[in-house]
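If you are new to this repository, start here. Below is one unmodified record pulled from the training split, so you can see the exact layout before writing a loader.
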Amino acid sequence: MGRRGMSAQERREYEKLQERKKQRLERQQARTMGSNPAKSTPGSSNRTAESRKVRRPDPDKRRRPEAELERRYDRDGMNREDVKRIQPKGRRKRRPERSKRNILGNILLILQLIVSVAFVGILALSNIIPLKFMVLIGVFLIILLLIGVVSQIKRRKRGTIGKVYIAVVTLIIGVASYYLGITTGALARITGGNTTVDTMVVAVRADDPAENLADAENYKFGVQYSISGDDMKETVAKINEDLGTKIDEVEYKNVNAQAKAIHDGDVDAIIYNEGYKGILEDEFDGYSDKVKIIYTHHIKTELEDLSIDVDVTEPFSVYLSGIDVYGEITQNSRSDVNIIATVNPKTRQILLVTTPRDYYVEIPEVSHGQKDKLTHAGIYGVDASIRTLSELYDVEIPFYARVNFTSLIDIVNILGGVDVDSEYEFTTSKAAGKVVDVKKGMNHFNGEEALAFSRERKHLPDGDNQRGKNQQAVLTAMIKKMVSPSMLLKANSIINSVSGNVETNMSQKQLQALIKRQLSVGGKWNIKSVAADGTGDQQACFSSGSQELYVTIPNETSVEEIQTEIDRVLNGETLEDGVMTE
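And here is the target side for that same chain:
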């Protein structure tokens, strides 16, 4: 035991022991000198020298006192018993050894390795992370694993802190893998949509005693075969099958005539496509409150896939349709929002073209040369709307995305609201869904407020035309937030929340390629919004028969200018007067 590790009390004990040692040595030396005194007689020196010369060590004699003392004392001269006596109680003499067996630690390390490999695998399957980021993520996971390994190799006692670290890291990676898998599944549900659903219904008057189809077995049914006759034939056949008898039919020219017939009592029930409900509301005030639905039949139709083999790294156009329904996204309905987004991923230019819902145009393959409102094209399917706009602007539109009111509210709320620039100060009406005081300039809206701002038209100076511009403003605000790096943290929530309320025919592979390119290249986007205009008029529409409705007659000059802007984006030119993302 060295002096440096001694306390003051131990040092005093040590000095006393040293003093006793010195005294012992002096007494021993004095006894040795006394038992063999030096002689001064002649010849004594010679005898002594001679005796010393012939003396040999006697192995049977006891050891010299000095040797005994060396044995009894350590190098500092302390007796082992004295050292033991002054050793402080409770102080450990040696560092405790760690357990040689570490089963739990090894199991946790193996789990961390498995979860890390699974995470990288799921990330690779998602195909949205660029290779350079994949490498960084892999290196980071390896570092986390090595920290866990070192914590167990260099552990003290049981290595509890290291085990807790490994468990926490494994849990975090596991949760991330779970949500990444959910996000990939949600992408699959959103993409690849090439179907539409027509909902055919049987309606009776609100005060009619019939509650189901069986109650109406002997009723007269108003039908019309002139528009979407195949859907009507299929529905009537299904009704006859369910009832086990043939219903009594009264045929009319259009759905408006059907509604009038049931209102006047000429028939007991009518069969029609629920997509016409908006038209009937326009014709008969409070129509929905005057009837009740007693039977529903869904007809699913496969659409031609126009998006096959389209390279999304090259310029393309997509039709954005906002349908005026809540719930099922595949349901055919009037399209209140009609926007063409022409995108050039190389130059990062986006042109948003809004066409008024009341634009008076032909619906190819549907209206047979007769004109109708653009919004009515949505009743006949998203493909009918695409054909109409494609012919109007002479542009190929391989992609579409359908969004209903529910999805707009959810997306905006998850984004934390959007900042929208309004050209006018106005207050939205209750018909828009929420009363909102909109100020001129920048406004911060939540989901419901953004929807009300997008739907309002009665309190706007330019009516439907200005509503289209307001919709563009909301969409621009959403895009600005979505292309920002912070969107990655909210991507999972956005995709999962809208997976049932957004549909696109873009394949999962194509959408992944777009996301991957943005993450890899980055950069700001230039977004420009334009709107077609025209003049208001009253004209007969294909979907409403001979009844004249309010329409917007297209301004051909406006249409030509939009065609030119679309061509500029497709040809790689930069748009002026656009809004740059952050």
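Two things worth knowing about this chain: The two ends are 71 Å apart (CA to CA). DSSP finds 18 helices and 20 strands in the chain.
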